[in-house]
């Protein structure tokens, strides 16, 4: 008599263990994702836009339940399919738990377009959670996969990098785990080079320029491309409120891109990006500068992670030398997918100049990204972070350790204001407050340094070359 009971008990135990591990773990919402040219804190944005969600790991959920992630070096269709399956599996584990404890019913996870298909496969009585017993719920659990559907979002794509995926599907806001534990490491690393793997390509990727200027295929001096990842860029016929014609000869309009609408219209109604371009143009002594207007912000002054990452990758692809990022957001944790983008920027020897933010807080204690990558042991060499100073006092975001910020720029008053060149290229009026307008002065300095250095760019080299008496000072 005891033996059958023991056998039944063991079978039940084995089944329970198998069943438990088949459920997976329940994902949780852990934050939000947003960027702002005015240094907006995450919390107010989350309150106003509940659909913006920052998710821990390699996947980041944007509004409309979409997730952006890297799939790694191999961008073949098979690997993209594997990434989608990983997301589907995680969503399924969540719904298995919900169904098992009786909180959710299988029909709740079907989209309108799937309802008919699901209902034809199985017949259910009217929803009545108290009457649904454990065995009925178990049957539902193993059919959850039928209702999970995650696909690559092809309605919002741009010419940046096939490894950066934007996925769409139901309940993506639940995702939190790292789909790529290593953050999607790029191929041809220094370790690969040491091991003899594709050394020629590695040297090509990391080689610094050895001449003051580069020469194009037609023998003419190649343009020095500068990316303005911002609210747009007014020039020529893209006039909004005043004459911007002085910028026109210095714009590579063939590379301009609007990441919000996936077109080439980069008109800047905020004039945030345009003012930044004016500062750079008036302070860079390089005659062959060409701006690339990369519009990622609209009139709400809010953008999302995917558009800004894609803009950086787009800049890398089109051989932009320096990008100005006068925006950012606070985050308690590092952003792995952002780190991967910056890793690729470094491999391409592209410099990213960041504003430190305007809320007058210690970004050691309240990390502000991407500015906080300035002291990253691997990526910091190609990230330069700038804040404002007046009368030897930091008047905007600061770093108590002195490591998160590289440089300061002198403001003209206690309101941390900086002069904005007018439409003729002068510096008469107006003035604007914020590290957004301190950063482009440094961007201009980096351009001048790279163009005049036979040794190529190095962060320490540039900071060491800043002349005494300059308004740009080491932090």
Automatic annotation (TrEMBL):
InterPro entries: Peptidase_S8/S53_dom, Peptidase_S8/S53_dom_sf, Peptidase_S8_Ser-AS, Peptidase_S8_subtilisin-like. The keyword Protease applies. The active site is at residues 230, 272, 436. Keywords: Hydrolase, Protease, Serine protease. Residues 225-445 form the Peptidase S8/S53 domain. CDD domains: Peptidases_S8_S53. GO terms for biological process: proteolysis. PROSITE patterns: SUBTILASE, SUBTILASE_SER. It comes from the Bacteria. GO terms for molecular function: serine-type endopeptidase activity. SUPFAM superfamilies: Subtilisin-like. The keyword Plastid does not apply. Belongs to the peptidase S8 family. This is Subtilase family protein. It comes from Arcicella aurantiaca.
């Amino acid at each position: 008599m005891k033996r059958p009971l023991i056998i039944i008990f063991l079978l039940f135990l084995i089944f329970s263990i198998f069943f438990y591990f088949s459920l997976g773990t329940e994902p949780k919402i852990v934050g939000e994702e947003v960027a702002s040219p005015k240094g907006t804190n995450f919390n107010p944005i989350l309150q106003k836009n509940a659909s913006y969600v920052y998710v821990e790991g390699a996947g980041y959920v944007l509004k409309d339940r979409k997730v952006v992630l890297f799939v790694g070096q191999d961008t073949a269709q098979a690997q993209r399919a594997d990434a989608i399956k990983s997301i589907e599996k995680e969503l399924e584990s969540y719904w298995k738990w919900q169904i098992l404890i009786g909180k959710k019913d299988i029909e709740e996870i079907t989209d309108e377009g799937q309802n008919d298909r699901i209902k034809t496969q199985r017949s259910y009585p009217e929803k009545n959670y108290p009457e649904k017993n454990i065995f009925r719920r178990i049957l539902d659990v193993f059919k959850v996969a039928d209702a999970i559907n995650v696909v690559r979002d092809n309605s919002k794509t741009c010419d940046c990098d096939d490894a950066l995926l934007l996925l769409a599907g139901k309940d993506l806001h639940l995702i939190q785990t790292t789909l790529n534990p290593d953050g999607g490491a790029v191929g041809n690393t220094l370790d690969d080079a040491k091991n003899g793997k594709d050394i020629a390509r590695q040297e090509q990727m990391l080689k610094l320029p050895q001449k003051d200027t580069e020469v194009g295929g037609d023998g003419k001096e190649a343009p020095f491309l500068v990316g303005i990842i911002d609210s747009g860029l007014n020039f020529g016929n893209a006039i909004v409120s005043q004459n911007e014609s002085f910028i026109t000869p210095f714009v590579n309009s063939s590379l301009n891109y609007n990441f919000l609408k996936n077109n080439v219209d980069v008109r800047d109604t905020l004039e945030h990006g345009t003012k930044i371009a004016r500062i750079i143009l008036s302070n860079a002594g390089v005659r062959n500068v060409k701006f690339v207007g990369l519009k990622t912000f609209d009139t709400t002054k809010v953008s999302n992670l995917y558009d800004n990452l894609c803009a950086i990758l787009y800049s890398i692809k089109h051989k932009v030398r320096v990008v100005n990022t006068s925006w950012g957001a606070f985050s308690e944790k590092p952003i792995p997918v952002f780190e991967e983008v910056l890793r690729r920027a470094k491999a391409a020897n592209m410099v990213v100049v960041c504003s430190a933010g305007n809320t007058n807080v210690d970004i050691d204690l309240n990390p502000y990204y991407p500015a906080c990558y300035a002291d990253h042991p691997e990526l910091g060499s190609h990230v330069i972070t700038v804040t404002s100073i007046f009368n030897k006092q930091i008047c905007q975001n600061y770093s108590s350790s002195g490591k998160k910020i590289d440089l300061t720029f002198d403001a003209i008053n206690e309101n941390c204001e900086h002069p904005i060149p007018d439409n003729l290229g002068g510096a008469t009026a107006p003035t604007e407050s914020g590290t957004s307008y301190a950063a482009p002065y440094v961007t201009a300095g980096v351009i001048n340094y790279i163009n005049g250095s036979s040794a190529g760019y190095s962060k320490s080299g540039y900071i060491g070359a800043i002349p005494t008496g300059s308004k740009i000072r080491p932090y």
